[in-house]
Structures are given as C-alpha cells and as structure tokens.
Amino acid sequence: MTASPPPPTTRVGAPGPGPEPAARRPRSGWALTARTAADSLALLAVAVMVAHAFLVEGYVISSGSMAPGLFGYHKRVTCPSCTHSFARGVSFDGVAGLPGRMTAGEGDGDGTPARPVTFAHCPNCGQPEIDVSAAPDTQGDQLLVLKHAFAWRDPRRWEVVVFRHPEDARQAYVKRVVGLPGEAIRVAGGDVWANGELCRKPLTTQRAVRIPVYDPAHAPRPDDAPEPRWSGDGWVRTELPDGDAPTVRFATAEYDAAPDAAAPQADADADGPSRAEWRRLSYRHVLAAGGTHETAVQVDPPPRSFEWDEPRLPVAYDFDPITNTLSCRGVLSGADACRLRRLSRDPRWRDAVKELAARSHFAPITDDYGYNHAPDPRFEARALDFALSLSADLSRDPDAALALQLTDGNRTFLLVADRADRDRRPTGTLSLFELDAAGRPLGAALRSVALPASVAAGPVELEFSLFDRQAVAAVNGVQPFAPVEFDRPDDAPPPGPGPALLGGRGAVAVTDLMLYRDVHYTRGRAVHGVEEDYRLGEGELFVLGDNSPVSLDSRGWNDGAVPERLLVGKPFIVHLPSKPGTLSWGDASTTVRIPDPARIRYVR
Fold first, then answer.
1. Is the pLDDT of residue 96 over 50?
2. What is residue 434's three-state secondary structure?
3. Residues of the chain with CATH 2.60.120.560
4. Contact present, 414 and 403 (Cβ < 8 Å)
5. Which tens digits make up the pLDDT trace of 430-454?
6. Which of 40, 237, 409, 514 has the fewest CB atoms within 10 Å of its CB?
7. Distance CA 294, CA 360 (A)
C-alpha cells in the first residue's frame, strides 16, 4: 500500500491553485560559461574604472632620464663579444652643450629621436660601435602609479615620484626626490648635499640606483680581451653544468702558489687574517678596444732619426717633443701601433710604443651609461663609489674565510667573513677594517659581529659598498652592523682601474660576482644647486634623474623647485612590459610587441 500526498487545501477567500508551470529547460554549459565570463568582465571593467579614477593610473616613460632602472623608448642590444644584453636609448631629455643628445620630452609620449640611432657600446665589456640600426624600437616602461599616495604622508628623500611639470601641466615627469622642503641643496662631487651635510643613501636605495660595471658571467671572448678583468693567484674559473652561471672557485688544491704572493691584508700579528694563508682575486678595468681615457709614456731622450709628421697621423695619439711624451686616447689599436713603430728604428721608441699599447687597455671607471650615446671625454666623470655583491659558499670548510676589499682612491676598507675565528663567536666573525696605503689594518676592526649560522649551512649572499662615503655590509639582505661613515677631501685622487679585490682562505666558492658603481650626479645645465646652494621653500622638492648625464631636472629647469601640489603619485610597479618579436608568414615578416614578464618589477 502506497501513501499519496494529501490533496491541496484552499483557504476561504484565497484563489485556487493554478496550473502547474512547465518544467524549465536547463541551460547548456557553454551558455552558463559565457554568461559567467560576461559578468566577470563587466565587474572587472567597473573595478578597473574605479581603481583608475581613485587609486592607480598608468604612465609610459618616453625618455631615458631614469635609466638603467627605468627605460624610455629604447633598442634591445646583445653584445657580440660578451653576449651581455642591455638597452640603448632612442629618446633623451635635452641637455645643453652635449652634442647629439636626443630632445624628445619625457611626457610627450613621442619618443622619436632627433636622428637615427645606429651604434651602441657595451657597458659590460666596452665593445664599441655595435651596429643597432636594424634593431626595432621597444616601448618604454609602463608604470602603475599609486595616486594620492602623498595625501597621507610627505615625500621622502630618494623616493621616485611622478609629478606635473611646473611650466607645462600637460606633461608628467618621473624623477627621484633628493631635496626636501626648506633645505639648501647642492650637487657637488657626484653627491647630493642638504644644508651642508652629505645625503647618504640607505642600502635599499643603493640597490635601486647601482649601475653594473662588470658581470663575469658575460666575459668577452678570449680573442676580444687582452686578459680577464678578475684574475689572481690560487683562483680558478670553472663552468657550471647545465648552462648555469660561471663560477669563480677558490680551490684548496691551488694553494701551492709562491709564498710571497700578495694578499688582501698584512701580517698575522695584525688584528686580521694571516698574509701567508691568503690568495687574492683582483679586478682591473680592462678594455679590448674603444674608451676615451688617456694613456702616456715617456720617451727620454727622444729617439734617433725621428720625424713626427703630425698632419698625416690620426688624432687618436700624439707626441709632445717638449716633454718627450707619447700619448693616446682610448685603446691604441694594432694599426695605430704599427704606424707609430714605423716612425723610428730606435729600440727605445719601439719599446715605448709597445708599452703604450699595453697600458692603454687599462682604463679608469667612469660614469658611462651603455643606455646613452658613445661617451664624450669632455663630459665624462670618474666613478668614485663602488659596491660588490656575490654568493659565497664557505660551508665545506670550517676554517674558510672570504675578504672583500674596496677603495674610493682615498680610503680603503676590507670586509672579512672568517669562520675560523671561533674564540669569541662559535659561528665565526664578520669584521670591517680600514687599511693603510700598504694594505695593513689601521688598528682594530671598526665593526665585528658574529657570522650568521646560515654561513655553515650553504651559500650566503654578501654585499659590500662604499657609496656616499659610508662602508655598508649585508648578509642575505640584512645589515649586521651600522654603516661606518667617513670623509673624503674634495681634491682626493679617484681610484684607478682596480678598485676591488677578493681574498680567500680554505675551500671557498664564489658565484654571481658583480661589481657596481654609484650614480655620479653631474652638473647638467648647472642652473640650480650646482654653483651655489638652492634654497627650497615650504612645500617644494628638488628632483634628479638617475641617468644624470642626460637628465633634464631641477638642475636645469627655469625653476628648480617642484611644488608638492603637483605630485601625481608614487610609481610602485613596472607592468605590461614588452619586447620586440617577429611575426613571419612565407617570405614576409613584421615586428610586433610581445609581453616581457622578466621586466615586471617593483619601483624602488
């Protein structure tokens, strides 16, 4: 017997039940998916419009005033000698007196160069005259800017900002804040001064503005380099398997070098590592060709049977008969050396030419930007501040030690990570010394702390810099001690071709070795803050571009101050970057823009 549902009841005065509705036909899966997608896109569009109106806004950089951190319109170049990839700008701020500078405005969105870009020079190995005429242009970095970021707080020094230009509110500029309201700002000696005090960059800012000098993972071909830039006793260079980066490895088996081999510091009775146990790896800025540096040798007394037919000789070299000085600009090419040797059969003359050719390969490090045009020696500045970063593995030897040495030409500092120093600290010590001219420590360590336990577990990241006259160190991104500040006289000599050195003891392996330089702030148009202090008023900022040689900023505008009311916001990420790609069909092809996720990054 089955139960059936009771018949429906009807209340008095209520309408009776109507006919049952027909069963609804279920929607197909694709219809539901399409409806869901349409709803999602509509919500996304609304969210984007709200965010654009109230939160963020996108900007495209057209000029290269913030390169190499932020690119304007540029060409992507791969050096044929060292395979280093870099950007070559096609649009620059206008800088008076600099020949050949591009003048497309930073906010005009045009980026069309004043003349075709045909050549580049490699900032890593110095390879000159790399033909880039066929390389397609790449759009500048696109920034997402957090609007109204400064409605809740004041701008900070070294912060990147987007603002409207005081003389043309239609143009948006991106620069770095270096001067704050009420300060007297001066740009001198490559640095920024506020109220007579040197403005020192924190480590986070140093990482954002530091400019690579050399990456040994992209060493030039042996035929193109007279000798390696990093070289020394007891060190061997090996190639890691599977296409990994090259390793500079410090091997125990190589320690049987000459006992008098130079070391990064001196005797065992000094407060530091023993000289006899150490081997070193030193950096020298070697160029295979090109350069704008000057090299000179003496030829005294002058050679016999010598005639200097100056009109028919290139201007790349010269001979001064008053001082008997033979000189050249840049690396003396083999053809030029051959021409010089033919001028006299005197052995002393030929020896002088040979010496000049050899010495001309060693160049000082300057404020060269591969992003810009070929360097002009009239406007080059010598780099003074350098930094090292590397990955060091000291875990395989309990007595291993690594030393990093840097000089600004006037002061020399040594950072020593010594696992064997366990008398005071079980994990070893990290110590900072200042050295004298002979390489000996000037007394006890300036700083000394325990090495982190991670040193015994595997590779650690080490950073050491002398930016802005301060010695700064970091292990795995953390500063173990406060920076050591120091002075440098205005007339101090700049460092030579070798500002950096590594020392090692025990089984030490070093990878990802990089040498950097700091931004060297130049005179620019020298309208404001160069010849004398520039006083900022209430609510006014002084801004500079990281690409100082070609940046048009507070140094050169009619009014050097940027009112805070013109700030648009704070850029926080480079988004939607692109790179040129090739689309081919049959015998035809065209260049198209394709996404470049590797260039997505935060703005520091």
1. no
2. strand
3. 212-285+380-517
4. yes
5. 999 999 988 899 999 999 999 999 9
6. 40
7. 8
DSSP string, 207-273: HHH-EEEE-GGGPPPGGG-SS-SEE-TTEEEEPPSTTPPPEEEE-GGG--S-TT---SS--TTSSS-
Kindly report each contact of residues 559-562 with a partner whose C-beta sits within 8 Å and lies 24 or more positions away, as own/partner.
559/166, 559/167, 560/527, 560/528, 560/529, 560/534, 561/166, 561/534, 561/536, 561/537, 562/163, 562/166
Is residue 338 within a helix (H) or strand (E), and if so which, with residue range? helix 334-341
- The class (CATH top level) of 36-200+527-604 is mainly beta
pLDDT band at 276 (very low <50, low <70, confident <90, very high): very low
Is residue 124 a contact partner of residue 79, using CB atoms and an 8 Å limit? yes
132 touches 90 (CB < 8 A): no
Q: Is 458 left (phi over 0), alpha (psi -120 to 50) or beta?
A: left
Does residue 561 register a pLDDT over 70?
A: yes
Q: How far apart are CA 64 and CA 376, in angstroms?
A: 18
Q: What is the C-alpha to C-alpha distance for residues 162 and 173, in angstroms, rounded to an integer?
A: 6
**Residue 206: is it exposed, middle or buried by C-beta count within 10 angstroms (0-12/13-18/19+)?**
buried
Tokens of 519: 């931004």
Q: What is the pLDDT of residue 117?
A: 77
For residue 489, say if its preceding peptide bond is cis, omega within 30 degrees of 0: no
pLDDT in tens, 373-403: 877 777 789 999 999 999 999 988 888 899 9
Q: Which two tokens stand for residue 541?
A: 């900022």
What average pLDDT does this structure show over 18-34? 57
* pLDDT at position 230 over 60: yes
Q: Does domain 212-285+380-517 match CATH 2.60.120.560? A: yes
CB neighbours of residue 443 within 10 Å? 11
The half-sphere exposure of 279 on its side-chain side, counting CA atoms within 13 A, is 22
Q: Is the pLDDT of residue 408 over 60?
A: yes
For 461, the token pair is: 């990241």
| Average pLDDT of the segment spanning 125-149 | 89
* Res. 265 pLDDT band, cuts 50 70 90: very low
Query: What residues have CB less than 8 Å from 539, skipping those under 6 apart?
Result: 181, 563, 564, 565
Give start-end residues of each CATH 2.10.109.10 domain in the chain. Answer: 36-200+527-604
Map tokens 């000189």 to a residue. 327
The tokens describing 222, both together, are 């042996």
Residue 272, token pair as written in the block: 């530091």
Q: Which residue has 């939607």 as its token pair?
A: 576
